[in-house]
């Protein structure tokens, strides 16, 4: 959980930030990279031309160099794309993997090379000189390992910092995409399946938007002819509503739509007369009879109010274009497909046969009605032709994979989409696994009902609130701050627990795990972010000024590792977008927090030295300031045993001295620092607590 010293307003900035995890991912990067500009590291002034050209990801830049080398090494192989990948840090930062495949192509063709290793060697030798590369080496059968220059890494990060957030975004090949996600069904409760679709879809949309793609966020709600079974129920529900609304009640608020749906379904199953009336109601509705249409739109309105509340809580923006929207376009689209010879008659229905599939894609049912498939075909046509989207992304559970495979194959046969999967316009189904309970079975409530989304969010929030109250936040914060923080942390935790897994796996819903402040959780990341903000705030430095006038220097290996990781952000977002995998970005953020912690711990001063320096400062300045000399230090040292000061101060409490020159104390104390008495330092800490208010020049930090 968040540490007590992080002040509420800041905490909330941080947690709100997390609600915007993906959109704000660059902020954590920014914050982390700013830290590199610590006061001791600011060196010569360097100014950057504001209009310097954006050059692409590290991989792209390396690929350009290797492309040149390949042109010289194997001039006949003009279609060879450089294969660049990040590599095991023991061997370098990146590697070029072309040698093996090139060798397979050229061996026996009279080439001068005698094996893949010499090919690799030649690729390495022919690399053009570049300030990017510090050194290269050859490994195994011709892999060329590249170690990047630390000056170049430093320069590139600085460039990004100065030029702003846009330069962190990858350049994708598409301009406009549709992300079809969430898409609950009218008159039914949103459940955990819709939660996954909402969270994953929103994240994909954010990542694409960050990559400068215009995203049409579409809520394809089931408000018309949904899957056969659901649509029947829905229609019954509509029928009942028609009666209720018209004859019983005009007060919409008094209707519990879910209970009503259940009752109507029960009656539909048990009463044939009712069933018939319900089916007639559908005909009347589709025929556009005024009172049925009116009742239908009222039902939609009630449902919409329900799921909009969920979107608001989760910070989701969506535009509803439900199934009914496409209804008027269906006949025209089917006519076009018919003319192209795609549609055939089968057992009274009209279908598209898809090679390799057991069942055809039914586009008109035997009763003449349209269905889920005809709506989706039409929606795809609309998105391509009317909305001019180049990439259609559908986020649903993996159970619908078959449906989308058939849909996309039909679209390819119609010539709407190109064959193959790599060219645009293209369509992808983003499937996800089930949400499981701790028993490993489908997540349900005790009464075996589906778990309602609102209940989950309520519980996440109330657990967070309880944890905050336990930490004494109720006394420090206003009720509103407490509520907002609990919401942000709770909902963030639910989102992140879902996103961090590969979406195709089933994931187990566990509150204890997702709200843990250790390990790969939202709470841990939020904490890391809050801590970084706090460090910057307390440093008292003008970061904007440092950004402009300071030059970054990456000396320590941990500093370099953090710098390189920051630099790889764009290619990670690109990978996450291309493969539609938000977990790639989550993993990156988690590792970033790790890199930052290591950097912060190991660079500048070691924690031990820092603690000691601060401790001495407190004891001497607070108690007997004028006698702050080596004699006191020696006295201190005499009463020390062997335990490490780190045990006492650990990662949780440090004191930072600003504005006073404590270097002489530091030097003296360094000589004695490695032997300490645990009890003695425990006393010192208590003492420090007492005197901290007096020591104006000393800044208290318990945020580490
Ligand atoms: N274009 C689509 N088929 N989008 C997904 C719709 C999901 C559907 N309403 C369901 O709850 O399963």
TrEMBL record:
GO terms for biological process: arginyl-tRNA aminoacylation; post-embryonic development; reproductive structure development. Its EC number is 6.1.1.19. SMART domains: Arg_tRNA_synt_N, DALR_1. It holds the Pfam family Arg_tRNA_synt_N. One of its GO terms (cellular component) is cytoplasm. Keywords: Aminoacyl-tRNA synthetase, ATP-binding, Ligase, Nucleotide-binding, Protein biosynthesis. Gene3D superfamilies: Arginyl tRNA synthetase N-terminal domain, HUPs, Isoleucyl-tRNA Synthetase, Domain 1. Belongs to the class-I aminoacyl-tRNA synthetase family. This is arginine--tRNA ligase.
């Amino acid at each position: 959980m968040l540490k007590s010293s992080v002040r509420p307003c800041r905490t909330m900035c941080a947690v709100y930030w997390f609600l915007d995890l993906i959109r704000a991912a660059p902020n954590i990067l920014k914050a982390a990279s700013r830290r590199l500009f610590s006061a001791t590291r600011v060196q010569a002034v360097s100014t950057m031309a504001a209009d310097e050209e954006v050059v692409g990801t590290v991989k792209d830049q390396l690929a350009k160099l290797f492309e040149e080398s390949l042109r010289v090494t194997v001039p006949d192989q003009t279609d060879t794309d450089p294969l660049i990948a990040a590599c095991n840090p023991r061997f370098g930062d990146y590697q070029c993997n072309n040698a093996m495949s090139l060798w397979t192509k050229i061996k026996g063709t009279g080439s001068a090379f005698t094996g893949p290793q010499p090919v690799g060697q030649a690729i390495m030798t022919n690399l053009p000189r570049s300030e990017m590369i510090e050194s290269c080496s050859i490994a195994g059968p011709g892999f060329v390992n590249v170690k990047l220059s630390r000056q170049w890494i430093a320069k590139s990060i600085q460039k990004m910092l100065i030029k702003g957030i846009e330069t962190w975004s990858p350049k994708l090949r598409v301009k406009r995409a549709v992300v079809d996600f969430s898409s609950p069904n009218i008159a039914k409760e949103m459940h955990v399946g819709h939660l996954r679709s909402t969270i994953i879809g929103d994240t994909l949309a954010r990542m694409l938007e960050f990559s400068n793609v215009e995203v049409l966020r579409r809520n394809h709600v089931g408000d018309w002819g949904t899957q056969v079974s659901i649509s029947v129920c829905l229609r019954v529900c509509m029928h009942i509503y028609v009666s209720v609304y018209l004859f019983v009640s005009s007060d919409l608020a008094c209707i519990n739509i879910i209970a009503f749906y259940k009752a109507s379904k029960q009656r539909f199953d048990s009463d044939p007369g009712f069933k018939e009336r319900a089916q007639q109601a559908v005909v009347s509705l589709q025929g556009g009879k005024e009172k049925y249409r009116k009742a239908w739109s009222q039902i939609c309105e009630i449902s919409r109010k329900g799921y909009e509340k969920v979107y608001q809580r989760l910070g989701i923006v969506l535009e509803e274009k439900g199934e009914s929207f496409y209804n008027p376009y269906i006949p025209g689209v089917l006519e076009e497909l018919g003319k192209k010879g795609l549609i055939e008659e089968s057992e009274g229905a009209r279908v598209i046969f898809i090679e390799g599939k057991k069942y055809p894609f039914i586009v008109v049912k035997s009763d003449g009605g349209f269905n889920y498939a005809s709506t989706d075909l039409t929606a795809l046509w609309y998105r391509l032709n009317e909305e001019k989207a180049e990439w259609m992304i559908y986020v649903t559970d993996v159970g619908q994979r078959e449906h989308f495979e058939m849909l996309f194959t039909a679209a390819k046969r119609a010539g709407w989409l190109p064959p193959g999967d790599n060219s645009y316009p293209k369509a992808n189904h983003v499937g996800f696994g089930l949400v499981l309970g701790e028993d490993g079975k489908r997540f349900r409530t005790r009464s075996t009902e589906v778990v309602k989304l609102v209940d989950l969010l309520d519980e996440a929030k109330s657990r967070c609130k309880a944890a905050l109250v336990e930490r004494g936040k109720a006394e420090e914060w206003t009720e509103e701050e407490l509520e907002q923080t609990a919401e942000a942390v709770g909902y963030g935790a639910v989102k992140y627990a879902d996103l961090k897994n590969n979406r195709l796996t089933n994931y187990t819903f566990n509150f204890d795990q997702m709200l843990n402040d250790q390990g790969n959780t939202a709470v841990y990341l939020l904490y890391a972010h809050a801590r970084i903000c706090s460090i910057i705030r307390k440093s008292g430095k003008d970061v904007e000024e440092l950004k402009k006038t300071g030059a970054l220097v990456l000396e320590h290996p941990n500093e370099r590792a953090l710098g390189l990781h920051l630099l790889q952000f764009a290619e990670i977002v690109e990978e996450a977008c291309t493969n539609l995998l938000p977990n790639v970005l989550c993993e990156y953020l988690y590792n970033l927090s790790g890199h930052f912690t290591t950097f912060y711990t190991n660079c500048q001063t070691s924690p031990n030295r820092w603690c000691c320096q601060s401790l001495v400062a407190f004891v001497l300045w607070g108690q007997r300031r004028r006698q702050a000399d080596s004699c006191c230090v020696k006295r201190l040292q005499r009463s020390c045993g062997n335990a490490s000061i780190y045990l006492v101060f650990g990662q949780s409490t440090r004191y930072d001295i600003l504005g006073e020159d404590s270097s002489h104390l530091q030097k003296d104390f360094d000589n004695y620092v490695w032997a300490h008495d645990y009890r003695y330092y425990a006393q010192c800490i208590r003492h420090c607590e007492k005197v901290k208010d007096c020591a104006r020049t000393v800044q208290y930090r318990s945020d580490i």
